[in-house]
Each structure stands twice: as structure tokens, then as C-alpha cells.
Amino acid sequence: MICKIRKWELSDAMDLAAALSNKKVQDNLRDGLPYPYTEQDGTDYISAMLSTDENETFAFAITVDGKVIGSIGIFRQGNIHRQVAELGYYIAEEYWGKGIMTEAVKQICGYVFDKSDIIRIYAEPFAYNVASCRVLEKAGFQYEGTLRSNAVKNGEVIDMKMYSLLKTEI
Hints:
CATH superfamily: Gcn5-related N-acetyltransferase (GNAT)
Strand content: 25-35%
Number of helices: 5
């Protein structure tokens, strides 16, 4: 199954809401997303992504056969980390385990390294999210270590893992 990443369109809001109105998906993401996630929430998010500085925020829909199944973004950091960016992503549960996310990660990293001055992309999945860690490893990211007691999710103190990919490595 081949995926494509593309810029968001306001018409993607319903598909986005369908992907995010799943507790299993949200359990692997940072807090702050409404649940259930509505089409209006999707419209608001897409509008925000479309109005960002395209050299600071690289935000894309993940599509399969023209249907939006998830989201992927790379977000530039500031100050001394101005050439470093954080990667975040998710896809709808029915597409898990099919290699789609690994392909989307490769696509967006190639795009950002090619179109910007970013030299390092990092990701911090929850340590319990073995599938996400595997996605990063298969996409060429290096495991750098465990960030102990680095977050509180669903009332639990949890570890996160640090992965990175350097521009010189692709």
C-alpha cells in the first residue's frame, strides 16, 4: 500500500476527524486534542496549518488512494535549535502495521531536508509505543536514549525515547 503526503485542504476535515476520534490513536499522542474529535476541530486544525510559515511548520496530510488517513508534521525549533525540528505523526488505526507510516516519515524527511536548512529531525515517542519506535528505526532514525519519567499521559508517569535523523544520513 503506497501513501502520499500532500498539503492539507479544508475538505480533509471529515477524514481527519474520523482518524482522531479513536482513543487508541489519541493514547499515543500528546494531550490537548478534543475527544471525540469533530469535523469542526479538523477544520480549525487545517486552517491553522495552512496559515503557518512554511519554513517553520511542514504539515501534511497522509493519503492512501486519495483518502486522508492521518497527519504528519515537522516543526522547527527556536534559538540555538533553529536548524533542528521535531517530527510528529499518526494514522487511523485500520492502517496500522502496513508500512504506511514508515513511508510517510521517509517522504517528509526527504522533503524537509531538501527544501530547508534543517540539519536534524528528532522524534520522542512514548516508550510503550513499540510500533512508533519501529517506524522511526525503519525510516533510518537512530535511537539516542530513553528520557526517563519525561511525560504524564492518562495519569501515568511515562518514559519517552529519543530518535534522530541527520541531513547527512540520507
